[in-house]
Amino acid sequence: MRIARFVPSRSVALVTVLLVVALVATVWLGIQTQTPVTGDAFTPAEFNPTPTPAPATTTGPPWRYGRDDARFTVVEYADLECPFCRAYFAVLKQWIDAHPEVNWQWHHLPLTTHEPAATANARLVECVGEAGGPTGFWQAVEWVYAHTRGDGQGLPEGLSYPGITPAAQSCLDSDHPDALIRAQSASAAQEGIKVTPTLRLQDRQSGKTLLLHGPVEGDALLSAIDLLAAGGTTETASKELPPESLGDMPR
Hints:
By secondary structure, the protein is of the alpha+beta class. Helices cover 42% and strands 11% of the residues. The protein contains six helices and five strands, in the order αββαβαααββα. The longest helix has 31 residues, at 117-147.
């Protein structure tokens, strides 16, 4: 006996094909929504990198570089004509950039042997900072160290800071920066600080401090930080690290 085969009509076949296509599309879309986006598929709006350390926003003086919320502060007593200070400037800046738990505070200490150039340079950076804020101040310090002849010889004859604003010039024409520089110098003298660079490391959480002489290497700074952090009291203390902790950098 011959069995009749079922032959679907064209309309039924078309509906079947459409259902299969719809099913495949649904599965494909489901897979796509669960697949993580990688590589070039990222757009700038979707990428959220780890935030970089925020720069200090506190205006000076005293001028600070680094994070405002840093637990530790390195106060540098410096002379803008001091060759050791000049060599140490970029080293300390790079170290502060790499250690967001520490910020850096400038303290003027123009040495008598470097006058009048030391105070003239200090007046310049203070007035640029007064007009341009922390960024202006630190850029001015960097510029002075890059151009001064050092050891009291000062800036080359006829060289002036580029882009002096009317506000900065007005400051230079006044005695405001002189009073500030004298006050900072007097403060250093009262603390018995007579050489540059000298560092005072402060733990802002406990209030303890350590006095470090010379351009201190990074490892010695970290050791000093560990020492302060391990103190565990709120009393103010001032100590000098032994000379061997300062490494082989010039003092």
